[in-house]
Amino acid sequence: MGNDHEGQRVSRRRLLAGVSSIGFGALVAACAGKSAVTTSTGETVTLEAVTDADLTALFAGARTCTLTASTTQGPYYFDADKIRTDIREDKPGAKLRLALQVQDSETCRPIPDAVVEIWHCDAGGLYSGAEAASSGDGGAPPPRGGGDGDLVPADDTRYLRGAQVTNQGGIVEFTTIWPGWYRGRTVHVHVMVHVGAEKTLTTQLMFDEALNAQVLATEPYARHTGRDTFNDDDSIYRPSMLLKVIRARDGYVGCLVLNADPDHDGA
Length: 267
Prior knowledge:
Number of strands: 10
Order of helices and strands: HHEEHEEHEEEEHEE
Low-confidence stretches: 1-41, 45-54
Largest sheet: 4 strands, mixed
Shape: globular
Structural class: alpha+beta
Distance between the termini: 44 Å
Mean pLDDT: 78
């Protein structure tokens, strides 16, 4: 019943959204060798990466060619089937413009046409599609899907989830909010990179604690009190996961270079 309901909801959204919402499975397949996909409305859409600025200087400070550490995808991942730049919906919080560059860990060359997904909690620590389970207030454990462990969404909320396709420079850009926190974890953003038809890299992005303190002291974050886990206490945190962040006029800009290993040889 749950899967049928989710499938119907996706179909309705595709019908309404038209070319702005491309089936994620179709997009991954397209990036494996096609230059265009056909949406559920019958329209053919050329795959285009979305980035609206020259981020060369910012990436220069975040450059590395060391294989990015992999992490668990966590209990709240599912295919949100939403290709867009702005993933905020109506969620309040400090604006965060997030730019990520995907490159090959062996050659240090950008990887174009990779699919990059991000997802994270809101200012109060809730994940869309799993609000009860992520609230910490007695919600049931999140239902899982098949053997890959993806979440079967328990509600119809959709926010702070989205995907983009890397341009020729390997860059994607999202507009989101600074994530909140929940018990047992530091502030973080989940990232998954697909190259071709494979999930090539799953990792997380972290934030400097001085900046976390500044942001979390403001509304609406300040309503959520009792934070119990910081970077140094987090079981997943690695210094290499820290975003390079600068203050912008209307919020923050963060970036990181993600080094993937498409041929899976560990280099």
